[in-house]
Amino acid sequence: MIEVLAKLGRGPVFLAGEVLECVITFTNPLSASSTSASSEMLAWASAQIHCQFHTSENRVALPPSDGIKHDVQAENETVFVPNRGERGQCILSTPPKILFCDLRLDPGESKSYSYCETLPIDGPPSFRGQSVKYVYKLTIGCQRVNSPIKLLRVPFRVLVLHGLKDYQFPQDEVVAPSNPFLEEEEGLKKDSRLADLATELLMVATSRRSLHLYNISNTRGKVGTFCIFKTVYKIGEDVIGTFNFSEGDIPCLQFSVSLQTEESIQEEFQRRRGQPVSFSTHARHQEACLHTAQSSFSLPIPLSSTPGFTTNIVSLKWRLHFEFVTSGESSGTCLVRGSQSEAVTWAGVEQIGVDTFSWDLPIKVLPTNPILASYVSQFSSTNSITI
């Protein structure tokens, strides 16, 4: 028996273009007091990154794939197929790397190997939607002699930031910021600068503030105004907006604001012509606001959500969806005198005619620092298997 343990050094979330580093440890768990006959042998081990693409057959019509399905691992098969038995199509993969050949482990002995690979910068982001899914995995395959291949899959999340692909790193390493107390490999230096550049680009894109004012009105008149100071956010930020109903002609009884994503399939891949778009709500604020002059809301963008993106098959966009319930009568008829005594009380009317309408405001949502997203990731940094 051999235990295989794979550990992602920095966490399970990465930016496309970064270097993924994983330490893979092979251990013979028997005690050192066991006889030498208890030694274990592995013929080989290899690792590869791949991205699986899943679709809903009811929503997406893909052209037939020319690839051959490998659902069962043959007993004498020695070919390493990382996505063997996986659902969907493998749309992206890195070249496989051999970790070792002919490894012998004595009782209590362990060997560790470091796997490093640059994530393709032109791949799609990780996404689990209603119509499609993009799932990234690092697969480690190993085999005993005359035994089937065993696969250890390490899922991780990829964020895509547009603009990094066109950046050219300076050739003069002296001008690049560095820590003189640390000795880093060249690949790690470039990877660190890529993360720093992404953080800087995101800060510039999301820190710009300008006043956006919108008049809220229906066919009968003005309801109020809505104010928001920016429309570009990072995942993990809060979307904050304010309402002013004091200048409205039509009383607003209630409003709700929903933070939503809009998942749409490109027309040539739609199962049915003109099929509806899929919406998902990530946060919602609802408030009764009769006789309220001003109000506000704060909706958090989950760190686990996917920033907006577009591929040749699917497009994901973000929006704020507003719903307003307004009175069909003047504000004075919304209250009635409840008592004729000296202490006059007012009460709401039992029935009132209302009008409802909605409004959508598109916003842009970008990725964030992958280290922050790792804190709430559903994936574990450590995965293991026993063979």
Description:
The protein contains 2 helices and 23 strands. The strands form 5 sheets. Strands 2, 4, 5, 6, 8, 9 and 10 form a 7-stranded mixed sheet that branches. Strands 13, 15, 16, 18, 19 and 22 form a 6-stranded mixed sheet that branches. It has a 4-stranded antiparallel sheet with strand order 7-3-1-23. The termini are close together.
Q: Hey, roughly how much beta strand do the residues contain?
A: over 45%
Low-confidence stretches: 68-76, 169-179, 181-188
Q: What is the residue-averaged pLDDT?
A: 84
Helix content: under 10%
What is the element string, with H for helices and E for strands? Answer: EEEEEEEEEEHEEEEEEEEEEEEHE
Number of strands: 23
Tally the helices: 2
Largest sheet: 7 strands, mixed
Task: Give the secondary structure arrangement, pairings included.
Blueprint: E1 3-8, E2 13-15, E3 19-27, E4 40-55, E5 89-93, E6 97-105, E7 110-118, E8 127-128, E9 132-143, E10 150-159, H1 186-207, E11 212-218, E12 221-228, E13 232-234, E14 238-244, E15 252-265, E16 278-288, E17 294-300, E18 309-310, E19 314-327, E20 335-337, E21 346-348, E22 354-366, H2 370-374, E23 382-386
Parallel strand pairs: 2-10, 13-22
Antiparallel strand pairs: 1-3, 1-23, 3-7, 4-5, 4-6, 4-9, 8-9, 9-10, 11-12, 12-14, 14-17, 15-16, 15-19, 18-19, 19-22, 20-21
